[in-house]
Amino acid sequence: MLVIVVENAPPRLRGRLAVWLLEVRAGVYVGVYSRRVREMLWHTVEKGIEDGNAVMAWSNNTESGFDFVTIGSNRRIPVEMDGIKLVSFMPQKEQEEPHEP
Question: Does 6 fall in a domain?
Answer without folding.
Answer: yes
